[in-house]
Inverse folding.
């Protein structure tokens, strides 16, 4: 297991190096930073002097090494708009985004697992065909359309749920505030979480169904039936347990990428998270904020993939044997 973790650590370093290089390249190609740092009245000679002081005339690799050194210290520059460290601004919005992803993940797990299992066990039933039909529609409809339709139905027509904002939040610790601890916060969470979950819910349902149908045809499941075991024991202990292996692999990666998918959802629902902040930073050409967002999302993605690999190694005995022999 130690060798496995070491390999994953090295892979994470390579991925973060590539992300940092891309982020720096984007930063260098989004315009002149002096344009945001000084006024129009500053002369060209003064601008050139400032360019030398800030090292903007240095070769690309020198500037990148300086950027990498500052990044390792947690210094990703100062936001042009907020006049605060960019990383501090991004991390202040991180709890709202993670809360949205967590709520969407709960919805995905709560619905996809029972629907996937049921449609795998009863593939010819009418309800199974309805589930598969709805899942095809769900895959085809983009998240922004789902969000707009849900606002129109549940907020405008029925008036059940709020259409924007985060509602009343409860302070937990530091910058962390949550809406999970009060009714108003939960009501504000429902629509954006459902919209965000609509991206992955059909995929998870179809993945669980297809994998479980394949597992149900294996010899050890047929042997379990021959032993006269209770159907629930066969379905959940023998079949579903082995279905989880590919679901953990694919699902973990997809849940990690949902952090990036929140951009559209947060924009439509005016959700004060990282995605909404990122779009505002793009409109303002706030390059330090853009870079900080890319770095933080990259770190989350790397951590998520590492945790998924560890869980996969714990669940799959074959993987553990390979790790012990390596």
């Amino acid at each position: 297991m130690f060798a496995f973790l070491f390999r994953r650590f090295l892979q994470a370093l390579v991925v973060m190096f590539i992300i940092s290089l891309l982020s720096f390249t984007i930063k260098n190609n989004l315009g002149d930073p002096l344009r945001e740092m000084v006024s129009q009245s500053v002369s060209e000679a003064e601008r050139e002097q400032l360019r030398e002081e800030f090292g903007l005339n240095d070769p690309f690799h020198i500037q990148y090494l300086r950027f990498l050194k500052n990044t390792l210290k947690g210094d990703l520059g100062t936001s042009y708009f907020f006049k605060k460290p960019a990383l501090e601004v991004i991390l202040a919005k991180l709890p709202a985004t993670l809360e949205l992803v967590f709520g969407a993940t709960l919805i995905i797990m709560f619905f996809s697992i029972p629907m996937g299992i049921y449609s795998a066990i009863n593939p010819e039933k009418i309800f199974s065909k309805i589930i598969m039909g709805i899942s095809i529609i769900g895959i085809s409809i983009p998240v922004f359309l789902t969000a707009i339709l849900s606002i129109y139905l549940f907020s405008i027509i029925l008036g059940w749920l709020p259409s924007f904002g985060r509602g009343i939040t409860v302070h937990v610790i530091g910058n962390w505030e949550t809406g999970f601890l009060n009714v108003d916060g939960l009501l504000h969470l429902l629509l954006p979480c459902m919209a965000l979950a609509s991206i992955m819910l059909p995929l998870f349902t179809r993945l669980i169904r297809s994998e479980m149908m394949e597992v149900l045809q294996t010899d050890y499941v047929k042997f379990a039936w021959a032993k006269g075991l209770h159907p629930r024991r066969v379905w959940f202990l023998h079949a579903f347990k082995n279905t989880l292996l590919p679901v953990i692999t694919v699902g973990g990666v997809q849940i990690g990428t949902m952090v990036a998918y929140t951009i559209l959802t947060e924009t439509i629902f005016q959700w004060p998270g990282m995605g909404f902040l990122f779009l505002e930073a793009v409109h303002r050409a706030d390059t330090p904020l853009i870079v900080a967002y890319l770095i933080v999302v990259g770190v989350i993605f790397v951590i998520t993939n590492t945790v998924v690999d560890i869980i996969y190694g714990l669940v799959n005995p074959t993987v553990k044997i390979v790790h012990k022999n390596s």
Q: What stands out?
A: The chain has 13 helices and two strands. Residues 320-326 have pLDDT under 50 and may be disordered.
